[in-house]
């Protein structure tokens, strides 16, 4: 499983990464998590507003910080 946090490094992007890491830890899932700041890579996903969370190539949310419960749900799908 691979998670990508798309964003420039702003506070909301950093919070999204923290929440993703917390969800993985709480669920006991070993996954790769990458912070993507390159605008071209972000645009390849069709994301125009950050932060965004991508799980295994699927954009789950863009434009706002996700709730921890939502991240956990997406990880278990």
Topology:
Elements: E1 2-6, H1 11-27, E2 32-36, H2 39-44, E3 52-55, E4 58-62, H3 68-76
Parallel strand pairs: 1-2
Antiparallel strand pairs: 1-3, 3-4
- From the spread of the alpha carbons, the general shape counts as globular
CATH topology: Glutaredoxin
CATH homologous superfamily designation: Glutaredoxin
The number of helical segments is: 3
Give helix and strand order, one letter per element, not per position: EHEHEEH
Count of structural domains: 1
Query: How many beta strands in the DSSP annotation?
Result: 4
**Helix content class:** 40-55%
* Approximate strand percentage: 15-25%
Radius of gyration (CA) equals 11 Å
The major beta sheet can be summarized as: 4 strands, mixed
Structural class, by secondary structure, is: alpha+beta
């Amino acid at each position: 499983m691979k998670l990508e946090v798309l964003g420039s490094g702003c506070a909301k992007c950093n919070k999204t990464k923290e929440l993703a890491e917390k969800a993985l830890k709480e669920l006991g899932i070993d996954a790769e998590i990458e912070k993507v700041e390159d605008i071209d890579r972000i645009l390849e996903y069709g994301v125009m507003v950050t932060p965004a969370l991508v799980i295994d190539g699927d954009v789950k949310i863009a434009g706002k910080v996700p709730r921890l419960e939502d991240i956990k749900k997406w990880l278990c799908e």
